[in-house]
Design brief:
The protein is of the alpha/beta class and 384 residues long. It folds into two domains: 117 residues, Rossmann fold, CATH 3.40.50.300; 254 residues, Winged helix-like DNA-binding domain superfamily/Winged helix DNA-binding domain (Arc Repressor Mutant, subunit A, Orthogonal Bundle). It is 45% helix and 17% strand. The strands form three sheets. Strands 9-10-11-12-14-13 form a six-stranded mixed beta sheet, with helices on both faces. Helix 8 crosses helix 11. It is globular and about 65 Å long.
Length: 384
């Protein structure tokens, strides 16, 4: 099994909390990781496991084994039981590990029953830094990080991604509360793939689908909650310049957006007119995934002024701000660095990174031009 970066964080949180909830999209590896942690496992989507848990509950909570509850939001009654078991012995840590695929549904139950008793950890599909072979690393941008989506077995892309999204649209999203018909969801997903990396405009999307912008925003909330999409808010600096304020929209897994846009291979990807936006979103997601898996506290934004000063990613760590510009080139220019520094100066960023596909790292501790792997190394090594 490929070791996941977040496993160390989960272990640390289990030592500090009675319960930990590991959330993330379906098929990203939550069950595999949880079962490797040597606990007693229950899949709460299965009626037989619910019955077994019900009958054995008293013995299980009195025992010393970690109790692993997969798809916990599928059986809401368990949250009241968890609260009671935790409150009977608040000093005992590392008792329960909850797994969930639908953040809003799970968090509703958590906030109502387990506030202050549980720590939340997110598992993403495989990150670039977690892959063990050069071949997997080369495929990662094209195929994305889902374990079964081609990053480990090339022939499974893009069929796996299309089947995965179809199943979400037909079964999972309606079951989780999305009111759209599967055909509408499919159209929306394909439209959102074409908008990857763009400023979000709900009214424009709604007009194309014959829906109000309120409805489109509601549908988008479900897709964000299912860990398919991310809205990156605009950074609101206290400066005199006017700023773009609407959020940007990104798909969280590059393989899903490439499959929706009918990109069969790396060569086809590189000739697409939107390939720069794809690379931008990929770099952003790898950075945010790496930070989250290490348990860092941060806020992420993009920054843009009407006179075209922009930063693809602004990382606010509280005590310092990092500015990141992403370029799909193997030969970044001095002009690229100059524009990065001018935008970074506006928000008083302490560190600046120009991330490209260059093979030569250049710069200093304050401003660095480098490839993605080097940038991720700096994130891992930073004392934040």
């Amino acid at each position: 099994m490929i070791r996941r970066t977040v496993q160390k964080l989960i272990g640390e949180r289990l030592k500090a909390y009675p319960a930990v909830a590991m959330v993330g999209p379906r098929q990203c590896g939550k069950t595999t990781l949880a079962q490797a942690m040597r606990g007693t496992y229950f899949d709460l989507e299965q009626e037989s496991d619910r019955l077994r848990l019900d009958l054995e509950w008293d013995d299980l909570v009195a025992g010393k084994d970690l109790l692993i509850l997969d798809e916990a939001q599928s059986w809401p009654e368990v949250f009241v039981r968890l609260r009671g078991a935790i409150d009977q012995d608040r000093g005992r840590k590392g008792r329960f590990l909850l797994l969930g695929s639908v953040s809003p549904s799970l968090m509703t139950h958590v906030s109502e029953s387990l506030a202050g008793r549980l720590s939340l950890v997110e598992l993403t599909p495989f990150l670039l830094s977690e892959l063990e072979t050069k071949a997997s690393c080369r495929r990662h941008w094209l195929c994305g990080g889902y374990p079964e989506g081609g990053v480990l077995e090339p022939k499974r892309y893009p069929r796996w991604q299309i089947d995965y999204l179809a199943l979400l649209a037909q079964r999972d999203l309606p079951m989780w509360g999305l009111s759209a018909k599967p055909q509408v969801t499919d159209r929306l997903l394909r439209m959102l793939a074409a908008l990857h990396g763009q400023v979000w405009n709900a009214a424009q999307v709604g007009q194309s689908l014959g829906l109000s912008y309120h409805t489109v925003n509601n549908y988008l909330d479900y897709l964000i909650g299912a860990f398919l999409l991310r809205q990156l808010p605009a950074y609101q600096a206290n400066i005199r310049k006017r700023l773009v304020k609407r959020p940007k929209l990104y798909w969280r897994d590059s393989g899903l957006v490439h499959a929706l846009l009918n990109v069969p291979d790396k060569r086809s990807l590189l000739v697409q007119p939107w390939v720069g936006a794809s690379w931008e979103g990929y770099v952003i997601e790898q950075a945010l995934g790496a930070l989250s898996s290490q348990g860092h506290s941060f806020s992420a934004y993009y920054f843009r002024t009407p006179d075209q000063y922009e930063l693809d990613l602004v990382l606010d760590f509280g005590k310092e701000i990092w500015a990141v510009e992403v370029k799909l080139t193997s030969s970044p220019s001095t002009d690229d660095v100059s524009r990065l520094n001018k935008a970074a100066d506006i928000i008083k960023a302490s560190q600046r990174f120009l991330v490209s596909q260059t093979k030569k790292t250049a710069g200093n501790q304050r401003c660095l031009s480098c490839d993605l792997s080097t940038f991720l190394d700096h994130l891992r090594a930073a004392r934040l």
